[in-house]
Every structure is written in C-alpha cells, then in structure tokens.
Amino acid sequence: MADRKPNGRSSIYLGQDGYWHGWVTVGIKPDGSPDRRHRMGKTEAEVTRKVQELEGKRETGHVAKPGKVPTVAEWMTEYLDVICDRLVASGKMAPRTLDDYRSKTRHWIIPLLGRHRLDRLAPEHLDKAYATMLDQGRSSSTVSRSTASCRAL
After folding, report:
1. What is the pLDDT of residues 126-146, one digit of tens each?
2. Contacts for 22 with CB less than 8 Å, ≥ 6 apart
3. Nearest alpha-carbon partner for 39 in 11, 65, 16, 64
4. Where are the domains of the chain?
5. pTM higher than 0.70, yes or no?
C-alpha cells in the first residue's frame, strides 16, 4: 500500500471521467477549512503545469481570494451600504456626501458599468461611460464628480 501524502500537499490523478484532476491547497478559508483549488485537463502534463503555476502563485502570495468576483453593481452596493455607512457613523464622511455617492451610483455607475466584473473592468469601459455621460449633455464637472463615487473600484 502506498504511503499517504502529507496534509497540504498537491495531488494529481486520472479521474473516472477520463480527465486529469489536480488539487492544490492554497491556504485557509475564513471558516477555518482548507482552501483547495481544482485544476482539470486532458493530459497529465497539462494538469501538472496548471498545478505548478498555482503552487507558484501560492508561494508568492498572489492567489485570488476564494469565491466569485463581484460585479461593479454588487461591489458599489456593498461599498455604499457597509463601508460608507460606517464612515458616516464614525463622522469621517458627511451624510450628504453619502447621499451624493448613492445618487451618482444609481443614475450613472450601475447603468453604465454595473454588469462588468471587477477583475475584468478596463480603462476602456470607464472611457466609454464618461463619453456616454458627456454625450447625454452632462457637464464635465458632473462626470468628474461621478468618478469620485467610483473611488472604491
């Protein structure tokens, strides 16, 4: 019988589905359970390369957090409802500033950028949103102030 690999060690195996599977432990989740990431491919070499790449990211500390990356709309809602509310409660942000941010987010940021995932938001998306605002007759100062609401991005 083969010796068991130590905890936290990566594993690669041929699954019953005909694909090679690799599992890498990259850390610990907030609930205390191991954060194991899965990689899959048609060949063992392909999966080995993917596992080694993920192990390299783990060693340098560049592994993304577990879970789905939020959209701009999801993040802005979280930012305004949680982070900015705390800033207002602590006196570090004026309530009118938060009201202004909510208004700009509701009228401009979410309709123009809300469906983009944060990790895929590119400068071109912002340029297009600014151009749309200017084309709709908004002044450059309104466009500029709307970008202040995006500081959290």
Report:
1. 889 989 999 998 888 877 777
2. 10, 11, 12, 38, 39, 40, 41, 47, 48, 50, 51
3. 11
4. 11-60, 72-152
5. no
